[in-house]
Design goal:
This protein is of the alpha+beta class. The chain has helices at about 50-55, 60-70, 80-85; strands spanning about 5-10, 15-20, 40. The chain contains 3 helices and 3 strands. Bound molecules: zinc ion.
């Protein structure tokens, strides 16, 4: 079912309603004033995006914000994983 928008002829408020296509031309009472002098208006189509598409559309400023937030944290150190492994010149620990 699509969401249709109706503009009130009395108060100009816009009411959005989920309506079956077969009832799209039925009058829809205004949510603001209750008037039934409403008419359907052309509204922006909506598109359902996958999560990947949403991520790809993010403004690059968010990448920079994350980079700035990360730069002084322990996770920003590229050697952190190597340091956690200890000194490999001493060989591997004995199996017990
Ligand atoms: Zn109204």
């Amino acid at each position: 079912m699509p969401i249709y928008e109706y503009r009130c002829g009395d108060c100009q408020a816009v009411t959005a309603v989920l309506v079956p296509i077969s009832r799209a031309d039925d009058p829809c009472p205004c949510e603001a004033c209750g008037s039934v002098r409403t008419h359907r208006i052309v509204s922006r189509p909506s598109v359902r995006l996958s999560n990947l598409s949403k991520l790809e559309r993010l403004d690059p400023k968010y990448d920079r914000m994350v980079d700035r937030a990360m730069q002084n944290t322990r996770n920003a150190d590229p050697d952190r994983l190597i340091n956690r492994r200890g000194d490999i010149s001493k060989g591997l620990p004995d199996k017990t």
